[in-house]
């Protein structure tokens, strides 16, 4: 892991810095000098940024709702967690997204309850 937190070799780092005069100076930061490709990349990135904002909002809303369920249940004498429900959620994500879905679901569940 390098200092930025981005793993080396992940494809998320580049020698092409995007500064003027560097190889992608047609559209700084796109990683290409070809104007049509650069324009399309900028367009797609606009939508990616929207999706990321939505994902972050949904992530935060889900965590808050999950915390509320846990608090409500405990205040009424119930358990903090319901493992059968967590299993259903893990299976939902696994069947839709495979092994990455399982990892994603584990992170989602942790976000609502904190580390065990
Ligand atoms: C939110 C709940 O409480 C806990 C959190 C869950 C979640 O984040 O989805 C699922 C099961 C419970 O362990 C629930 O029971 O629905």
From TrEMBL:
SUPFAM superfamilies: Chorismate mutase II
Positions of the Chorismate mutase domain: 35-116
Coiled-coil region(s): none
PROSITE patterns in the record: CHORISMATE_MUT_2
Pfam families: CM_2
Ranges where the record places region Disordered: 1-38
InterPro entries attached to this UniProt entry: Chorismate_II_sf, Chorismate_mutase_highGC-bac, CM_dom_sf, CM_II_prokaryot
Protein name: Chorismate mutase domain-containing protein
């Amino acid at each position: 892991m390098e200092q930025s937190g981005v793993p080396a070799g992940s494809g998320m780092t580049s020698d092409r810095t995007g500064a003027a005069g560097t190889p992608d100076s047609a559209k700084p930061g796109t990683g290409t000098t070809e104007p049509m490709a650069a324009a399309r990349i900028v367009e797609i990135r606009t939508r990616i940024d929207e999706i990321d904002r939505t994902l972050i909002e949904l992530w935060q809303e889900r965590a808050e709702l999950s915390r509320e369920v846990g608090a409500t249940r405990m205040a009424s004498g119930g358990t903090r967690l319901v493992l059968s429900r967590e299993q259903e959620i893990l299976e939902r994500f696994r069947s839709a997204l495979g092994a990455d879905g399982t990892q994603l679901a584990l992170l989602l569940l942790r976000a609502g309850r904190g580390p065990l």
